[in-house]
Write a structure and sequence with these properties.
The protein is an alpha+beta fold. About 45% of the residues lie in helices and about 20% in strands. The longest helix has 18 residues. The chain is globular and about 45 Å long. The N terminus is likely disordered.
Length: about 140
């Protein structure tokens, strides 16, 4: 009987961890991620910087960029809806300190490519991406 309770406990833990949302690894090799980090998502600098990026939807789409806004308790999509990601797990994955306020660029390989405090010019991030070997290969393939 103890074994079955233990087994149920483990299965419950596994199920609940999968139900808490996707993992950043689910985007690996599909998308680059821009993660805007702030303690408070009503932060004026965050909103201004986020708007600077979201106004350039064509550039985001061309670079397979997805935007998320994260605070310690929630993660939001670009449109402000709640994302299906676990904020605690993402903070841990990205090794974020609670005091960091800025932008993270995650490459398609899942590694952090840039970590900058606000404000960050969209052109600087686009140039960083365009200089990446994978992005250059994507552009060459598109030209063919």
């Amino acid at each position: 009987m103890r074994l079955s309770r233990y087994t149920l406990l483990i299965l419950g833990f596994i199920t609940s961890s999968h139900m808490t949302g996707q993992d950043l690894q689910d985007y690996k090799w599909k998308n680059r991620l821009l993660i805007f980090v702030a303690e408070n998502t009503d932060n004026k600098i965050l909103k201004t910087n986020l708007t600077a990026f979201t106004e350039q939807q064509k550039e985001l789409t061309e670079r397979d960029l997805m935007i998320f806004v994260i605070n310690p308790t929630h993660i939001y999509n670009q449109d402000g809806s709640k994302a299906n990601l676990n904020p605690g797990a993402v903070y841990e994955q990205l090794n974020l300190s609670s005091g960091f306020k800025g932008l993270l660029l995650i490459g398609k390989d899942g590694f952090i490519k840039a970590k900058k405090a606000y404000p960050v010019a969209p052109e600087a991030i686009f140039a960083k991406i365009d200089g990446m070997p994978m992005r250059q290969a994507e552009q060459r393939d598109k030209e063919r």
